[in-house]
Amino acid sequence: MTSTLTRPVEGLTDLVDGIRDAVAAHTDWAVTARLVAEQLREHLPGPDVLTAEQRRGSPDDYVAHTLHVEPDGTFSVIAVVWRTGQRTRIHDHVTWCALGVIQGVEHEELFDADLNPIGVSDNHVGDVAGFAPPGDIHRVRNTGGTTAISIHVYGTDVSRLGGTARRYYD
Ligand SMILES: [Fe+2]
Question: What is the dihedral of CA 167, 80, 40, 92, to 10 degrees?
């Protein structure tokens, strides 16, 4: 996933403060993901956290907009915009992640280490989840009729790393 750092984003202060406290607890990744997911549930922004232009997405591929990078590099907040039918490759992650859907529907498929399907879920507006490697191999697709948007929090500085996928499984 590529991402572009855009303008400073208003309306994320409470969320970012809450994530900062959760991350400062310095517990293991699975617990951090759960604590951050709780903050997302409590402070999930609306689609207007993005500009109208950003909310349109792109005909080429799903687009990630970096909304916040914590100065000490411990976490980043990203919005991902998917038009109908757009999807990720099968991948896992370099760190913990928490995410919440703020528009549309995202269909997620989970896989085991041998790439056998082990579960699916449809995530709607307000649905929040947190996960941490290992066991985080998945693929996400917009199966709805409208553009989908979700907020992702990753436990790293995405601007330095250039993305959060550890590996692709094609
Ligand atoms: Fe992912």
Answer: -10
Compute φ and ψ for 90, nearest 5 degrees. -70, 125
Find the 114 Cα to ligand 1 centroid distance in Å. Answer: 17
Q: Give the global pTM.
A: 0.92
**Where in the chain are the domains?**
3-161
Q: Copy the structure tokens of residue 81.
A: 């915009």
Name the nearest CA neighbour of 66 among 51, 76, 52, 55. 76
The mean per-residue pLDDT over the stretch 115-130 comes to: 96
CATH T-level fold of 3-161: Jelly Rolls (2.60.120)
Cα(78) to centroid of ligand 1, in Å? 12
